[in-house]
Write a structure and sequence with these properties.
This protein is mainly β. Helices cover 5% and strands 41% of the residues. It starts with a helix and ends with a strand.
Length: 519
């Protein structure tokens, strides 16, 4: 009897130990953001994601139309035609963190477009494997092909790199390495021609790698005739933790100013561009040193001045009235853990809508813009099965409207939502027989020709591949062509790339085509 009792007791003890071990394993799981500042802890089987909704006619489904099956941590996304075949691809930058269970792959990838959808397995993989917090595309060396700038860092503070492009796509091996004094953890990179000399400079948002060395200034690498300096020639006066950057001509002086979002204890703000020389201290700040993550410019109220959105708690919009920013809009969404935000005209009505993604709950929200008024509650929301890390827009399925690309930390790590607003000829009222431009490609200007059979006023809308409206050209009732000079509506030179132009009448897209601008 004693023997039986001892056997039962040992069985109970072993079961308790195994249960305790299983519970410990559940508690130990966690996801860490690309900058190391956000941590989401969870137990196996406890993540229940059922809160997706659409409250109006939004052009995205509530389930992905395409997704991968790769477990990585996505630091940044870009949608661009990287192999020059006329179809947009998806460029993915991956980061490395102390997440558990650990991740075993943090190469950078490109999912090429087959012509109808993205390939199932990326056919481009970087040869190096370092922590990439952001990814950008631009023709940095001025050879006519877009390059990839990987903003690297992580706890090892690896150098940022450039993969130079070619006719068939970028090299998998870096051809340029940054060399900041004391190294830096680059959180974000902004390619911009800051001094208007027709080559692309790069500004980075940065931090240190520990509580003993937490801060860095913003850096700028200047480009001289296609050669980007490896050491920064400009830095901000303040050392802090910055995470996102965006450019716009806030004061309409003809030079793009730089907005930056910053982590706690520092005020997000705007740095003025003084005729090609960036100020080292901000000309405007929010006056709030709480954490911001995510920043974007767009003319939300259609008054001709770009407004500023910040990923705050809650998300905020500062209206721009003749160069003066003031808080005008606050989201009423109930949870905020911003990881990224983007403006995009998702319904192609000429108004810039706002999208955001949150880290811990993995939710993507879209706030619709109705004739210059941004709704304060999300009109579309997708609840990811894992933590959210990045978003991007671009036409992937070739229907002429911007699709939504979502990046996660987990598996799947990439999801695509196709925009259901297909751009095509209106068969009920066939106003247009054709639309085309010549020359194409062009470097200075191109003539967009069309047949306006009903002789009614309309507009030509020109978008970049991110879905951002760059120019709106009114058409009178008797016009059959317009000339576009490769400038945006603020008379600023646009960079080389593919642009989508559409004929719009009564807020309805009738037809579209593409053109290639080569600087």
């Amino acid at each position: 009897m004693k023997k039986l009792f001892l056997i039962l007791l040992m069985g109970i003890l072993m079961s308790s130990l195994l249960f305790a071990h299983d519970e410990a394993e559940k508690v130990m799981k966690y996801e860490v953001s690309d900058d190391g500042h956000a941590i989401f802890r969870y137990s196996s089987g406890t993540v229940n994601k059922t809160n997706s909704f659409s409250s109006r006619d939004i052009p995205y489904n509530l389930t992905p139309d395409w997704q991968n099956s790769m477990r990585v941590q996505v630091g940044g996304l870009q949608v661009y035609d990287m192999d020059n075949d006329g179809y947009n691809d998806v460029v993915v930058g991956c980061y490395h963190s102390d997440s558990y269970p650990p991740y075993d792959d943090w190469h950078n990838f490109i999912y090429l477009n087959t012509g109808t959808e993205l390939e199932a397995t990326p056919s481009w993989t970087s040869s190096d494997e370092v922590s990439t917090g952001d990814i950008q595309v631009a023709d940095i060396n001025r050879d006519g092909f877009v390059d990839i700038f990987a903003a690297n860092g992580g706890y090892s503070m690896d150098a940022s790199v450039i993969y130079f492009g070619s006719l068939t796509g970028p090299s998998t091996t870096p051809g340029w390495y940054s060399n900041e004094s004391g190294s830096a953890w680059n959180n974000y990179a902004l390619p911009i021609d800051i001094d208007q000399d027709d080559d692309i400079d790069v500004i980075t948002a940065n931090q240190g790698n520990s509580t003993y060395d937490p801060y860095r200034p913003m850096y700028m690498f200047m480009n001289n005739n296609g050669t980007l300096n490896t050491t920064p020639s400009w830095q901000s006066a303040e050392t802090s933790i910055q995470n996102f950057l965006a450019a716009a001509d806030m004061d309409h002086d003809g030079w793009k100013d730089i907005a930056v979002s910053k982590w706690a204890n520092f005020e997000s703000g705007v740095y003025k561009n003084n005729s090609g020389t960036l100020a080292t201290s901000p000309m405007w700040t929010t006056g709030d040193d709480d954490t911001d993550k995510g920043v974007g410019w767009a003319d939300v109220d259609n008054n001709g001045w770009d407004d500023l959105a910040l990923g705050h708690d809650p998300t905020e919009l500062f209206s721009n009235n003749a160069g003066t920013l003031s808080l005008s809009w606050i989201s009423t969404y109930t949870y905020f853990g911003q990881q990224d935000l983007r403006f995009c005209d998702v319904d192609c009505d000429g108004d810039q809508d706002l999208a955001e993604i949150h880290f811990s709950n993995g939710v993507v929200n879209i706030y619709m813009n109705d004739d210059g008024v941004l709704q304060d509650v999300p009109s579309w929301s997708y609840d990811c099965s894992s933590v959210g890390t990045a978003i991007a827009f671009g036409d992937i399925n070739g229907n002429g409207s911007p699709d939504l690309v979502v990046g996660n930390s987990g598996d799947p790590s990439i999801m695509v939502f196709y925009n259901q607003n297909s751009v095509s000829v209106d068969n009920e009222t066939p106003i247009l027989s054709q639309i085309e431009n010549y020359p194409n490609p062009f470097s200075q200007s191109t003539t967009i020709s069309f047949s306006n059979m009903q002789h009614t006023p309309s507009d030509i809308m020109i978008y970049n591949l991110k879905g951002e409206l760059v120019s709106r050209i009114p058409i009178s009732s008797n016009q059959q062509s317009v000339t576009w000079n490769g400038m945006n509506d603020k008379n600023e030179k646009l960079p080389s790339g593919i642009y989508l132009y559409q004929l719009l009448k009564n807020d309805k897209v009738l037809f579209s085509n593409k053109c290639l601008l080569i600087r």
